[in-house]
Amino acid sequence: MNEEISGLRKLTTLQLLNFCLGFFGLQFAWQMRIILSGPVTEGLGASPFIFGLIWLAGPVTGMVVQPIIGAMSDNTHTVFGRRRPYLMLGAILAAIALWAFPNSEGIANITASKLHIAVPEFGGLIVAAIMIWIIDACVNAAQGPYRALIPDNIEPEQHSIANSYLSFAIGLGSVIAAGTAPFLNWAFGYQMSIEAQFIMAALAFSLGMTWTCITFSERKFEKKEESAQDKEKKPTFIDNFKTFLQSSPEVYKICMMQFFTWIGVMCMFIFFTQFSIHTIFNVPDLTSVSDALVLQYEEATANATNFSSICFAVLNLVCFLVSIPIGLLSTKFGNKKVHAIALLTMTLAYLLMAVTKNPKAIMLLMGISGIGWSSILALPFAMLSEYIKKGSEGAVMGIFNIFIAGPQVLVCTLVAWFISKCEVHLAGGLINYHWEYSFYVGAIVLLTALLITVMIKERKIN
Description:
Strand 3 and strand 4 form a beta hairpin. The protein is an all-alpha fold. The protein has helices at about 15-20, 20-45, 50-55, 55-75, 85-100, 105-115, 125-155, 160-190, 195-215, 230, 235-245, 250-280, 290-295, 300-335, 335-355, 360-375, 380-385, 395-400, 400-420, 435-455; strands at about 1-5, 220-225, 425, 430-435. The chain starts with a strand and ends in a 7-residue tail after the last helix. The chain has 20 helices and 4 strands. The chain is globular. Residues about 1-5 have low confidence and may be disordered. The protein has 2 domains: about 10-220, MFS general substrate transporter like domains (Growth Hormone, Chain: A), CATH 1.20.1250.20; about 235-460, Growth Hormone, Chain: A, CATH 1.20.1250.20. The strands form 2 sheets. The protein has a two-stranded antiparallel ribbon.
C-alpha cells in the first residue's frame, strides 16, 4: 500500500519538454533498431523467415516484460523513486546491447576463442538475436514505467498534453534517427557505418534517460508495513488483469480500440517497404529468380527502398509537428473527439494509398497518416489514465501494452499469410503479390477502432 506524501503538480512548457527527453532517446534507439536490424541480420545469414522470428522479440517482450515491470515498479520504494531505477537499468543494458548488436560476429569469434571451442556456423546470428531480444526487452521495460510517471506526478488535466509531448518526442526521435546518416552523406559526403549509427543510438538512449532521471523528480510515496494477511491477499498478475478489464466498461472499450488500432498501424509499418518496392515501383518478386534478373531490378529496388525511408520520415515529421496541437485540442474538446477525427484521417489515407500508385500522392498520404499516428501515441493513454486506480499505474500501463503488442503478432502471421496467398502472375513466369491489400485490412480495422472510440464515455475533468 502506498500513501501519498506530496501532491500532483502542473508542469510548465519547459518542464514538459524536459520530461520527454528520455523518451526521445528511447525512440531514437528503437527507430535505429527497426531501420538497421535487417541489414545486420541478413549479413549474418538470416533468411526472411528467421528475421521474422527475430522481429517478434518486440511484441513478445512487450506482452511479457511490460506488465511484469509495471507491476514491480508500483511496489518499488527506493531513494531514487519508484520508476527511475527501471528507466536507468533499461537504458544502460539497452546501450550495451545496441553497441554489441552490429559487432555480433566479432563477439561470437572472441567468445569461442576464449572458450577454446569452434565457432558455430550461425554463431554471429545467435549473438545478434540475443542482443535484439535484450534491446526490445529493455525498451519495453522502460516504456511502461515512463508512461506511469504521468499519472504518478502530473495533474489530471495535463495528462493529455503530457502524453502528447511524449508523442512529440517519438516523432522527433524517429526523424533524427532516420535522417542523420543520409543528411551527413548528402551534406558532407560522409557515410556513417552501421556500427557508428548504433553507437549514436546507444548514446541517445542512455544520455537522454539519464538527463530525465536526474532532472525530473518523482512524487514521494511512503511504504506501509504489510501484515501477513495483506501479503497473502497481494494480487497476482492474473488478478491485476481481471481487475483491469472489470474496473469499468470504458476500460474494456479503450483496450478494444487500442487492439484494432494497432493491427492497422502495423499493417503499414511491416509491409510499407514491400508495398513501395513491388506495387509502386513494379519490381516483381525476386526470391526465386536468376542473379541476372535481380541485377536488372537492382536500381529500382534501391530507389523504392529510399522512397520508403523518405515516406517514413514524412510520417514521423508530421507526427512531430502536430503532437502538441493535438494535445491542446484534446484538452479543449476532449480526447475522444480529437482521437476519432485523427483515426478517420488515417483510415481515409489508407484507402487512398491502396488505390493509387503515384509516389507523390503516396508520400502526401503518409504525411496525413502521421496525424493519426501522433494521436495514437498519446490520446489512448490519456483516455485510460482517467480510469487508473491509484497505486496501480505501472501495472495498468504494462497490461495495456498487451493490446499493442498482441496485434503485432497477428499482423506478422495472419496478414502476412493472407498476402502470400494473393499472387499476381506476370509475363515471363514472374509473380508479384497484392501488397496493397495490407492497406485495405488496415483501413477496416482502423474503422472498427473509430466506431469503438465513438462509443467510449469520456470522463469530464474539472
